[in-house]
Please model this.
Amino acid sequence: MNGFKNRFREEGLLLGVGVLLGTGLGILFGVMVGNMLLGIVAGIAFGVALDYVYENMHDREL
Model:
């Protein structure tokens, strides 16, 4: 159970960092394009995709 908690905390933190990083990039992109909402949505999608890719790489190593 303790290992599960640590894994969940690590995963949640990584997802949070990915989404924040993606949202930041998305806002920058949105400002350049002129559509802030589109940039934020793209940023969140990028963060989730980054987490998914990391998850698959992590599973392959095990």
About this structure: The two ends are 19 Å apart (CA to CA).
